[in-house]
C-alpha cells in the first residue's frame, strides 16, 4: 500500500493533486491517508510522529512523506529511505531522522531523477509522487534502481532520543508529545507554568474534567483531560516545551 503523511491539510487542492498522480501511475495500489495535519513547517516535530506511525505499517509499505518548508531550495536533497523494509520518499530535511535512527536496518538514496516539468513549489506532486508510484508498483525494489543514488556518505543520526515538547494536538484537544512512553510508567509531566500532571492508564481512571498523561496508541506520552480539552485548559500548542520529571 501507499501511505500519505503530510502537513497539507485536508482542505484545498494539494492532497487531491497528489492522489491523481498516484492513481494514474499506480492504479492498483491502495492509498491510505496516515496524517494530513502533521506539524506545519516542522520536519523535526513531524519526524517523531512519522516514526511512531511507521512502526505499525506492514513491510513493503511506501510512504509519501512531505513536510517541506524548504521546497525548491538547495537546503535539502530529495531522498528515498528504506527502514525495516518500509520505504519513505520525501525531502531530506530531517523528516526521516527518527525513522532511520530507530530502525534495525536503514539505507538512504538521493533522488537523482527529475520529471520533464517540475514546479518550484510542489515537489510533492511532480517529484515525490511519481517516485512513490514507481516504488509501489514493484515487488522487492532497490533504491538505486528507482531513480536514486546510494548516499553512503550521509550522516544518519543514531536514535535521536525524545523530543520534550508538544508535537500534535488532536481533534479532542489532547496534546501528544515526542516522548516515547515505553520508557516511562511513573513520574509527572511538567508544563511551562509549573503545573505537574500525573499519570493514568486511561480516561476512566480519573474523574471527569481531570487532567492526566498516558501512553497513547502510538506509544507516545500524551496529555489529556477526561471529557475535556487539555490544549485549551493549559494553553498548549505545537512546540510548547514540557519536561518529564
TrEMBL record:
InterPro entries to which the protein is assigned, alphabetical:
SAM_HAT_C, SAM_HAT_N, SAM_OH_AdoTrfase, SAM_OH_AdoTrfase_C_sf, SAM_OH_AdoTrfase_N_sf
All copies of the S-adenosyl-l-methionine hydroxide adenosyltransferase N-terminal domain together span: 2-140
Which Pfam family, an example, fits this chain? SAM_HAT_C
* The keyword Cytoplasm belongs to this UniProt entry's keyword annotation: no
Q: Does the keyword S-adenosyl-L-methionine apply?
A: yes
Q: Which key words tag this protein in UniProt?
A: S-adenosyl-L-methionine
Extract the signal peptide range: none
Q: Where is the S-adenosyl-l-methionine hydroxide adenosyltransferase C-terminal domain?
A: 165-242
Q: Which family does it belong to?
A: Belongs to the SAM hydrolase / SAM-dependent halogenase family.
Question: By what name is this protein known?
Answer: SAM-dependent chlorinase/fluorinase
Q: Which organism is it from?
A: Nitrosococcus oceani C-27
